[in-house]
Design a protein that fits this description.
With 334 residues, the protein is α/β, with parallel strands linked by helices. It folds into two domains: 125 residues, NAD(P)-binding Rossmann-like Domain (Rossmann fold, 3-Layer(aba) Sandwich); 175 residues, NAD(P)-binding Rossmann-like Domain (Rossmann fold, 3-Layer(aba) Sandwich). 30% of the residues lie in helices and 14% in strands. The protein contains eleven helices and 13 strands. The strands form three sheets. Strands 8-7-6-9-10-11-12 form a seven-stranded parallel beta sheet. Strands 2-3-4-5 form a four-stranded parallel beta sheet, covered by helices on one side. The chain has a two-stranded antiparallel ribbon with strand order 1-13. Helix 1 packs parallel to helix 11 and helix 4 packs across helix 6. The longest helix has 20 residues. This is Phosphoglycerate dehydrogenase-like enzyme.
């Protein structure tokens, strides 16, 4: 199918898997909360579902904000008939406490948008990588004609991607035209198709010294908090660049500020930060080798149709064969 200009697809949309019988939600009306939105109600209806106000008959909830877990907790406590919850983003760290409370329960079944936004986020990761390598932070801030040439080519470089989800897979697809060598770092060393090498997270310090580009595309969990800190930056090449399109908490921000100031790495491009929003006056705003894009890798204009498509697939599963996409592991937190 021909895409319209600017239209993304959901690479994971066809990766539906059947859930176990004890995790199969009961079909019934779906509530869209905290506030109904027509494009998402239309997605439910397109799948043959019924959209209705929250009631004792509600069996599914589409939660449209990436926050307010306490409010969602109260809704689930007061409506025990809800057996399926669709969350709006790929990352579910804002709901980690709530999810942990359901880790030993088969229902409700939780699904997220993981994989749905892989294309726009990977596109942004590539843009940031090229911007750093081509010296755009310095060039964009220049106020007079440069007298020296700076810039590196991405072709043939060694790239380390931390994370092995849909975004990592899409980043590798985009990188393939640059003839890069890609090492993927994930929880286990189980090979990821398309990667030249896959290693476990425990080997991160061993692969960082060989990386020209490090891209963070991992989930934010207790295990990945400050995955990159002083030791990791010290291990990287002075010519290496860092891109984070995942979650700010993966980086020790103070350590990054020091690493950039000391020249331990050549540059950083951050779509996400810790804290977020990054406060006015923070040293990263004026760091000449840093780009900050204020969490815009996947804008609402890009994600809304992708989320609508994910909702339609999962409402079809709710009413039909039970083959859901983006099922969340409540114990692991993603």
């Amino acid at each position: 199918m021909t895409r319209a200009p600017g239209q993304h697809r959901d690479p994971a949309g066809s990766d539906a898997v059947p859930v176990a019988a004890d995790r199969r939600p009961t079909a019934g009306p779906v509530a869209i909360l905290p506030h109904d939105k027509k494009e998402f109600a239309d997605a439910v209806i397109a799948a043959g579902g019924t959209v209705g106000p929250l009631s004792d008959e509600t069996r599914g909830v589409v939660w449209l904000v990436a926050s307010r877990p306490d409010e969602l907790t109260d809704i689930l406590d007061s409506h025990p008939g809800i057996e399926w919850v669709q969350l709006p983003w790929a990352g579910v760290d804002a709901f980690s406490g709530l999810l942990a409370g359901y880790a030993d329960r088969p229902l409700p079944l939780w699904t997220s948008a993981k994989g749905a936004y892989s294309e726009p986020v990977a596109e942004h990761a590539l843009a940031l990588t090229l911007a750093l390598l081509r010296g755009l932070p310095e060039k964009a801030r220049a106020t007079s004609w440069a007298t020296t040439e700076i810039g590196q080519s991405l072709f043939g470089m060694n790239v380390v991607i931390v994370g092995a989800g849909g975004i990592a897979v899409e980043i590798m697809r985009l990188l393939s035209v640059f003839d890069t060598t890609v090492t993927v770092v994930r929880r286990t060393a189980t090979p990821l198709a398309g990667a030249d090498r896959t290693v476990a997270a425990s080997e991160l310090l061993e692969v960082l010294p060989h990386a020209d580009v490090v891209i963070l595309a991992a989930a934010s969990t207790t295990e990945t908090k400050h995955l990159l800190g002083a030791a990791e930056f010290a291990a990287m090449k002075p010519s290496a660049v860092l891109v984070n399109i995942a979650r700010g908490a993966l980086i020790d921000t103070d350590a990054l500020v020091e690493a950039l100031a000391a020249g331990e790495i050549d540059g950083a491009a951050l779509d996400v930060t810790d804290p977020e929003p990054l406060p006015d006056g923070h040293p990263l705003w004026t760091e000449p080798r840093c780009i900050i894009t204020s969490h815009s890798a996947d804008t609402k204009a890009m994600t809304a149709p992708l989320l609508a498509g994910r909702i339609e697939v999962n409402v079809t599963a709710l009413l039909g064969d039970g083959r859901f996409v983006g099922v969340v592991d409540t114990a692991a937190g993603y």
